[in-house]
Amino acid sequence: MLFHVTMTVRLPADMPPDVAADLKAREKTLAADLQRAGKWRHLWRVAGQYANVSVFDVADNGELHDLLIGLPLFPYMDIAVTPLCRHPSSVRDGDA
Ligand SMILES: O=C(O)CC1=CCC(=O)O1
User: Which ligand 1 atom minimizes the distance to the CA of 45?
Assistant: First the structure.
């Protein structure tokens, strides 16, 4: 199943820089692993915002939930999830 996910990062202004840097580094490593595994299909920066638009390819809602709550930045993100399905006019094969 494909899900469109918007993540807006809101780090507390008083978070120590080393703590923020560690969170971001761990987020980057996990995001890379999930992209290589084919679970995190797209990862785009929203221009002008500390936010991303992503597409996840996971088995079901539960897998997406587990994946999202496992992200190091999860406690500091507003997340909006939109389930996707194939558009009847899409010329692409499958769910690519
Ligand atoms: O910077 C972000 O949008 C949050 C994030 C997701 C994956 C990553 O490396 O950072």
Answer: 3
